Amino acid sequence: MRFSEIEKRDLLNASLLLSLAFAILLSGGINFLFTLSPGVFFIFLASFLSAGLAFIAHELMHKFVAQRYGLWAEFRAFYPSLWLALFFSLFGFIIAAPGAVMISGRVTREKNGKIALAGPLTNLFLAIAFFLLARLPLHNFLAGISHLGLVINSLLAVFNMIPVHPFDGAKVLAWSRLAYALITILAVAVFILSYFKIA
What we know:
Elements: H1 5-26, H2 38-68, E1 72-77, H3 79-89, E2 99-104, H4 109-134, H5 140-160, H6 168-175, H7 177-195
Antiparallel strand pairs: 1-2
C-alpha cells in the first residue's frame, strides 16, 4: 500500500485519540481526570490494542481493496469528530466518526460495494480471532483485551453495516443483497455472543 505523509499523520492521530477516548470511558468517564495513576497506562494500552487497532484495520482494508482496483485512496481524519468523542467519553459514552478513506477514480457499484464490505468484514474476522483468543488460559490483562477486542470489533462490524449512507452497509446493499444479509446476520450473531458474555 502507498501512504502519503498526511495520511500517516492522520492514521496515527486518529488511532491515538480514539484509544484515549475509550481509555477515558473505561476509566469511569470524567473520573479519569481525577484518578490518574499507573493503571491508566494499561487501560490506554488495552484500548489501543482493541479499539485503536480495530479502527486502523478497518480503514486500511478499505484502502487496500480500493488500491487493488487501481483507485486513489487515502485516509483523512475528522478532527472535530475526534474531539467530540473525547468530550463525550468524559460523560460515559462515545459517538465517533474518526475519519474515512477518500476514494477517487472510476468506481462501479460492485467495486464500491466490495471496498465498503472490506471494513466491517475485517472487524468481523478480528472479533472471531479475539473470541478464539479468549478461549485460551490468559493473564487477566490479556483476557481483558481479548474480551474488549471481541466486543468492539463485533460492534464496529454491526454498526458499519447499517444500510444508510454514509455507512458501509448502504454501499454493500446497493451492490449485493445476499452479501449484505450474510455479513449482517453473522456480525449481529457475534455481537450478541459478546454482549451476553457467552463468548
